[in-house]
Write a structure and sequence with these properties.
The chain has a single domain, classed as Deoxyribonuclease I, Chain A (4-Layer Sandwich), CATH 3.60.10. It has 7 helices and 14 strands. The strands form 3 sheets. A 6-stranded mixed beta sheet has the order 3-4-2-1-14-13. Strands 5-6-7-8-12-9 form a 6-stranded mixed beta sheet. The chain has a two-stranded antiparallel ribbon with strand order 10-11. The radius of gyration is 17 Å and the shape is globular. Keywords: Hydrolase, Magnesium, Manganese, Metal-binding. Its cofactor is Mg(2+); Mn(2+). Its EC number is 3.1.11.2.
């Protein structure tokens, strides 16, 4: 079973890229972030024609998350994190596909930090951590994947000294990620490649992709039973170089 995550940076603007990527790589389950499309402007038919059922939570101009399943049913569980009924951002959707609970997330950026946006990021992180603890306690196979907007270690960022004050790399953010993982989750990419330089995002500016000046901010966290089934993981780095592509590249894992 192949599961992928991809921050598409506007599903309609990048639809040709997404469809080409799906055709070439054929993941079984896909989590998308930053749809930047209202609920009624999601390309459901185009994805269905490509063989994918879809659940999505849209939002005009910003945010937005979706889960796709290739020739399989999707059972929606929730479309918001618990803990703040007034939070209207479309940043989380959860479903069951082939017996696995899939949580697709787009964690807040948090810049500028310190400030209200950073405070919101940390509050959202705490809500995610509480929910992740509940998922572990349920004892069912689960994956939490998406754009975490976190570089967990210096290995995950090009020139870390330039990012020390950024919300994606501040000590509070990295501590929040560690607290989440330490509940009992496994960072899939780091489990297989503990010492490799691996990036999932390259800015559009200053030829970041050409210079490989990237960040690893898109992650897969697995429950212990899924971690035991992990057989492969990687980044479709070449997709970032396609014309009119997102500034993120798709990330994938394979489970036995």
């Amino acid at each position: 079973m192949k599961i992928a995550t991809y921050n598409v940076n506007s599903i309609n603007a990048r639809l040709p890229v997404v469809l080409r990527w799906l055709s070439e790589t054929a993941p079984d389950v896909v989590c998308l972030q930053e749809l930047k499309a209202p609920q009624d402007n999601f390309p459901e038919k185009a994805l269905a024609d490509a063989g994918y059922n879809a659940l999505w939570h849209g939002q005009k101009s910003w945010n937005g998350v979706a889960i796709l399943a290739r020739n399989a049913d999707i059972t929606e569980v929730r479309r918001a994190l618990p803990g703040d009924p007034e939070d209207e951002h479309s940043r989380y959707i959860e479903a069951v596909v082939n017996g696995i609970t899939v949580g697709c997330l787009y964690l807040p950026n948090g810049n500028p930090a310190p400030g209200p946006k950073f405070d919101y990021k940390l509050r959202w992180f705490e809500r995610l951590t509480l929910h992740a603890a509940d998922l572990l306690a349920a004892g069912k196979p689960a994956v939490l994947t998406g754009d975490y907007n976190v570089m967990p270690t210096e290995l995950d960022v090009y020139k870390p000294e330039k990012w020390v004050d950024d919300a994606l790399f501040r000590p509070e953010t990295r501590a929040a990620f560690k607290k989440l993982v330490d509940l009992g989750w496994t960072d899939a990419v780091r489990k297989l490649y503990p010492n490799d330089k691996i990036y999932t995002f390259w800015d559009y500016f200053r030829n970041a992709y050409g210079r490989d000046a990237g960040l690893r901010i898109d992650h897969f966290l697995l429950t212990p039973d899924l971690a035991e089934r992990l057989t492969g993981a990687g980044v479709n780095r070449d997709v970032r170089g396609w014309e009119k592509s997102s500034d993120h590249a798709p990330v994938w894992i394979e489970l036995a």
